[in-house]
């Protein structure tokens, strides 16, 4: 499609495959003892599911003024719901948010949709009870490839809840040179999930849930990352506001992919969310094969950059020479200061939505760490309401609170978002 007579840019389509369900949130003063009966303090029904949450966050923000082409962005959600009142509610909410549901599958014959019951107490703990329903996932044989990729699809994102289909779409996106991002959530011990994560150009991980995956894969590849117990020579704790142990842990996924798959994993972004501490992004910039072991060290030219460091890390390359020297960039961001915390459900999905929209729409013009800061702001605003979607910010919120240009937004975010670990942003 070419620019039309009015000079509008070609429509950009962001395709999301993922779970779409209704969250039922129950707040209690304390968890009940066995055989007891207690009273809930609050009850809310809010749209949920990783895919639905990310799609909603992006759709609400897509008309924000930080991208000149934002008015030509379409967020398409590929998911399956049932034939019940829950599905009607989900469709209404997603449509109201601006999500394109032309790919939404609605299974007929009186099927039920997915629901999740979330019980939270005054202490910072939650219990989630997932009810699959009877509608099932989008089946592989119900996919019309031409229909899915119709138009200018510029990015494919999946939460990995439907690994076989997600892998098939990730492979097709890769064949079409469309970037892929994946939020695997947890190790499902499925080959399709493993391959899908390998294909991802952006991989979203949380602090701990994928540790078993990397341990399992290291055994499969018969590799070890010897740097796991090492300290970083010359690295001071205040550098990039990260403790050396945190950095050592954060670089392991990127280093692992370089060890396993070599240079094809260069420029892969691994974004690790760490709750109320903030988030860390590690990007593999270069891999040079060497004949002798090297020392882990910082690259001196970037040590002084706030919230960002560059480092050289030795690794063993599977199927290649004995040694390699990887150059990694490690960046960090904190959380929204003075956020009104009502509920943490879906904060990670909100972060992903803000982060991806910035990366996709601004592309090479995305300022350093802007996507990290925008993701932190979206996640922080989400905390102000129950469930994953009730308090997500809109394009109007961006204009009112952050400004109407990238420069204005960047300045506002710099003051609103703290450093990793909780220090306030600079005034």
From TrEMBL:
Span of domain Carbohydrate kinase PfkB: 14-248, 338-394
Organism domain of life: Eukaryota
Name the UniProt record assigns to this protein: Ketohexokinase
InterPro entries in UniProt: Carboh/pur_kinase_PfkB_CS, Ketohexokinase-related, PfkB_dom, Ribo/fructo_kinase, Ribokinase-like
Lineage: Eukaryota, Sar, Stramenopiles, Ochrophyta, Bacillariophyta
One Pfam entry name: PfkB
Keywords: Kinase, Transferase
A molecular function (GO) term: kinase activity
Keyword Kinase tagged: yes
């Amino acid at each position: 499609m070419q620019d039309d007579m009015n000079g509008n840019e070609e429509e950009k389509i962001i395709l999301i495959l993922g779970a779409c369900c209704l969250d039922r949130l129950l707040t209690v003063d304390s968890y009940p003892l066995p055989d007891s009966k207690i009273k809930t303090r609050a009850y809310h029904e809010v749209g949920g599911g990783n895919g639905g949450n990310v799609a909603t966050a992006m759709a609400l923000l897509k008309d924000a003024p930080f991208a000149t082409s934002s008015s030509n962005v379409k967020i398409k959600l590929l998911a399956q719901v049932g034939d019940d009142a829950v599905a009607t509610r989900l469709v209404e909410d997603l449509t109201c948010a601006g999500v394109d549901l032309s790919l939404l599958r609605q299974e007929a014959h009186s099927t039920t949709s997915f629901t999740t019951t979330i019980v939270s107490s005054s202490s910072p703990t939650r219990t989630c009870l997932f009810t699959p329903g009877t509608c099932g996932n989008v089946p592989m044989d119900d996919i019309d490839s031409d229909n899915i990729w119709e138009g200018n699809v510029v990015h494919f994102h999946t939460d990995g809840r439907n690994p076989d289909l997600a892998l098939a779409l990730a492979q097709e996106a890769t064949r079409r040179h469309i970037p892929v991002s994946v939020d695997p959530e947890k190790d499902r011990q499925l080959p399709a999930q493993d391959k899908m994560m390998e294909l991802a150009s952006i991989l979203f991980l949380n602090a701990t849930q994928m540790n078993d995956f990397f341990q399992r894969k290291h055994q499969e590849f018969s590799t070890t990352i010897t740097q796991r117990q090492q300290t970083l020579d010359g690295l001071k704790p205040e550098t990039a506001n990260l403790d050396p142990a945190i950095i050592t842990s954060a670089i392991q996924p990127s280093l692992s992919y370089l060890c396993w798959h070599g240079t094809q994993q260069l420029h892969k972004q691994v974004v690790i969310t760490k709750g109320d501490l903030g988030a860390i992004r590690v990007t593999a910039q270069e891999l040079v094969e060497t004949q002798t072991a090297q020392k882990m060290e910082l690259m001196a030219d970037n040590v002084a950059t706030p919230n960002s460091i560059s480092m050289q890390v030795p690794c063993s390359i599977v199927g290649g020479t004995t040694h390699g020297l990887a150059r990694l960039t490690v960046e960090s961001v904190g959380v929204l200061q003075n956020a009104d915390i009502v509920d943490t459900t879906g904060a990670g999905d909100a972060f992903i939505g803000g982060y991806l929209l910035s990366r996709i729409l601004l592309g090479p013009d995305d300022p350093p760490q802007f996507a990290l800061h925008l993701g932190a702001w979206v996640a922080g605003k989400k905390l102000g309401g129950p469930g994953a979607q009730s308090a997500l910010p809109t394009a109007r919120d961006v204009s009112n609170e952050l400004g109407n240009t990238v420069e204005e937004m960047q300045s506002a975010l710099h003051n609103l978002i703290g450093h990793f670990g909780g220090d306030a942003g600079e005034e």
